[in-house]
Amino acid sequence: EERYSRAVKNMEFDRQLGPYTLMEYRNWRQLSSFLTKDIIEKFEPIGGEITVACESRLVDDFPKSAMERALHEQSMTSKFRRSDVKSVQKGCYFTPIPRIVKHKGISGQELTSLNLDKTHLLERLLAAECGGNEDRLLGELQFAFVAFLMGQSLEAFLQWKSLVSLLLGCSEAPFRTRTQLFTKFIKAIYYQLRYGFQKEHKGNSGMESTPLLDDSWFSDDSFLYRLCKDFFSLVDDTPVVDGDLLTWTRKLKELLENTLGWSFQNRNYADGLPYEEDDESAAKAS
Fold first, then answer.
1. Helix/strand number for the chain, H first, E second
2. How far apart are CA 176 and CA 241, in angstroms?
3. DSSP secondary structure code for residue 58 in this structure
4. How many CB atoms lie within 10 A of CB 194?
5. Which of 12, 157, 201, 238 could form a disulfide with 7 if both were Cys (CB 3.0 to 4.6 A apart)?
6. What global pTM score does this model have?
7. Does residue 103 contact residue 111 with C-beta atoms inside 8 Å?
8. Higher pLDDT, 58 or 120
């Protein structure tokens, strides 16, 4: 042990190491700010291997959107897929999130309300699965995104989608009970999408490849567009919004508009006419 300590102090191992890209380190810090050893151990498959080889069965259990079909086709043709793998459960141990809230003993109106505003489901999930720890839920969000983007895991994408749909489907929690959670959540997916939409560089040639995320993300009929549009409208329509939440929501909105060309139209309730933010700025300037 003393010999190894002396070697480290004398930098004897350094000549065997390659240069570390500081920009990638910064990206990784932003993508994994809520990831801990305990979270990784909780969700990773037995053996720690995340592979697409055993994930083809998942497509039958979820709605087949254009994006999900593209991801499935990509996984089926992946160089990491092995035909000799036995059909043994090797998936991640993600938290089950129901797409539809079912509750006995309540009226149809109350049930509809629970499905329109997922705040009740979020609170139940935080209490039952996270011990009330909001950061654990965000850690799972980041684990799923990294496993999807870097491990080509369709299962991880579906979990990431479920978590994003749950949180963006809340109407009360962002402004009353879980403001800090939603500020951290919007910040987390901002960094995820910014990293996913950036172009990679090939070596020293400076040539750019396609963005890390598939082109199906760019469609304005994707689930992400619909969820974000509803959430942005909710923020715009709320009289009092926390300053940090508002700041990061605007940053996310600008990212999607500038990167994907998406348009999130607001509504002027004074005259019932739609307007864009530029029009509002122009009116204030005049």
1. 12, 4
2. 9
3. G
4. 16
5. 12
6. 0.75
7. yes
8. 120
